[in-house]
Amino acid sequence: MDPFASPHKIDPQFRLLLGEASGNLCEWFARSGSDGPLPDSFLLPEVAPQLDGISNSDLLADLQLVMDGSYRPSHPGALAHLDPPPLTASIVGELICAGLNNNLLAEELSPSLSSLERQLCEWFCRKLGLKPGSGGVAASGGSLSNLMALVLARHNAGLENDSSAVFFASDDSHVSLSKAIRIMGLTQDSLQKIPTNEEGQLDINSLYSTFNRIHSENRKCFGVVATAGTTVRGAIDPINDIAKFCQKENLWLHVDGSIGGAFGLSDLTSYLIKGTSLANSITVNPQKLLGIAKASSLLLVSEKSVLSSAFSTGLPYAETPLGEYTHGGELGIQGTRSAEALKLWIGLRQLGEKGIEDLLLGSVNRRYYLESKIDTSMFEIITGPLHLLAFTPKGYSFNKGSEWSKQTRNYLLKKNFMLSRPLYKGRYYLKVVLGNPHTKNDDLELLSDFINQSIK
Ligand SMILES: Cc1ncc(COP(=O)(O)O)c(C=O)c1O
Prior knowledge:
Layout: H1 12-32, H2 56-68, H3 88-100, H4 111-127, E1 135-139, H5 142-156, E2 166-170, H6 176-183, E3 191-194, H7 204-216, E4 221-227, H8 239-249, E5 252-257, E6 281-284, H9 286-289, E7 297-301, H10 305-311, H11 340-373, E8 379-383, E9 388-393, H12 398-414, E10 423-424, E11 427-428, E12 430-433, H13 441-452
Parallel strand pairs: 2-3, 2-4, 4-5, 5-6
Antiparallel strand pairs: 1-7, 6-7, 8-9, 9-12, 10-11
Helix pairs in contact: 1-2, 3-11, 4-11, 5-6, 5-10, 11-13
The protein binds pyridoxal-5'-phosphate.
């Protein structure tokens, strides 16, 4: 049996393999609701290849073991993280992407797909209010998009050789920024953390005073990261005020919209993240809410030329692209990369603008519903305008709260609800992310009963 599909005729073995594998996947989805979000245990098939390759039926049996041991994002109780179930068209997009095996590194290795990525980024830019001339590049995850944004910001300020150059972000900004300073060779205090207010938003006055202090120490600054949707509670930083400050002080504004950026796609929700039109760069992560199969992240920039200006090294082994285009591998950190735009494009087309809106509003409504059911005489709830909330018992010591969070998380898992347990401002919380479209009000009613009963 030839393991490569024939380029001359339909390969019946390949067709059979695809058919059976897709059938197994459909069955896996269909069973996801009856088992819990997490398997109790799993068996792993043999990992190393044997001397001779194995048959398709053995491959499928091994694959089944891996599938049976997987996390099940479709389960209505899968509410722990920003990992919703994938759209069916997005799964197909991923499959076709693997089959085409094009490479976004170079135009000649992905003629239609490079063009698709460019146009899709421009569509996102328009939706988020960026002007003509804006554009973007896909990246494998929000951490990478944020890293690239910081590299752009530093490059723009001409501070590539200054390891103590500074940027600012709130206490609640994502850990990917700390990772970025290590990769970029910056000093630990290059990331100046700004305290947040009661709502979990960057405190603008503290930004001003911290900037003044850094300035008086003669350190150079290159940007501010505003988070649109913080990881624990979905808070949105005051993007407009931060933008004005950045303009005044000539700093790059990056909006980390990994969570909240998607809300810019509907006229009914875009007010939640107003100010993105003033950003120099924006991260959006369609994998986190829109049902696009992982990985799917975009880095959008207000002026697309900045990407090649920071990242282009020349690609002497590929033909120069026609027109004014730059190779995809010259627009960011990644060289070879798959056409992640394909599953994003086809998923959004499957949803349509109305479907996108329903997904966004549905998520926020589920959060409102659950919030209304948790007993606030017993619990402190922290949330924002999006689809995340976290809660912890009032008046518990650190140790008691930690014990409660562990026990309640485990108890809820047994009841087929999976929540996460973030440590936030010195206390353990249980966090619920309400982006799963299979979660219904009845599920949330049951969940809130369990939550309210978790304090004896
Ligand atoms: C606000 C924020 N930014 C960035 C990221 C990083 O995204 P990724 O996990 O895709 O690298 C996350 C992940 O949860 C996030 O919450």
